[in-house]
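Here's my example:
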Amino acid sequence: MIELNIKKKLFSQEGSMTLDVNLHIKEESFTGLYGKSGAGKSTLLKILAGLVKPDQGFIINNNELWNEPSKNIFIKPQNRNIGFLFQDYALFPNMTVRENIQFGCTGKVDKDFIQQLLDVTSLHNLDNKYPAILSGGQKQRVALARALARKPRLLLLDEPFSSLDSDTKLKLYNELKIIHELFNLTTILISHSKEEVLMLCERVVVLGNGRIINQGNPIEIFTSRDEEVKGTVLDIIEEDNEDTIIASTGSETLKIYVKKDSPIKVGDKVIIKRSKSAH
């Protein structure tokens, strides 16, 4: 369990605001941080990572006090057992894929673990290649594997898929879910995409002007029904008596209940009739 209760004064072109967040994050959960640009998401993630110090408050990770300014306690980033993945791949151009991943290791390189990372990220056939010849999705896989090379318990992701095309994103979403479960990670993802949060996260925390304005199950937070619209199926949740389809209209995300074993598949285009009485 991560307990975070911090305050940090921030400055932007719109003026100053205070990031004021009290948050509990369950161990081995996948949590999304969602909100407009300037809401304080990236700063919050950097405070968790130890890259930015809060003005006041505390961070406790599994009973270990990481930060409390009033007691002059601050655990350095390299001692927090975290992996951090930014939008920018930041790969070393003069290093091979394997060498880039090994750079993330702390202490002696575990060759068997590096091979496992190459396999799980589908990079095993590219281990001796250099970043210049890799696609955007492959570069992001290398950056993710490098973040995992230090065997973190907490994985922090700052909009890592924002520059990728839709097909590549979908593949990486599926791989990330597998990696999250395989390594028993606690994962926190910053995203501007409702679809991304719905596909990856079991919980979403919505930030606005430095404060939590909503949190809970992403489907309950993001879905609504109102009228007839066209959409694309993002996910299908199988249940006992009926299935729930998660679909995107381009501007919003909806959930639709259909009969069990419906022929609808992920990726299908559908016309959705939404009830006016829905919340």
User: Anything to note?
Assistant: The helical segments are 41-49, 97-102, 111-120, 136-148, 166-182, 194-200, 218-222. The chain has a mean pLDDT of 87. Residues 93 and 131 are 6 Å apart (CA to CA).
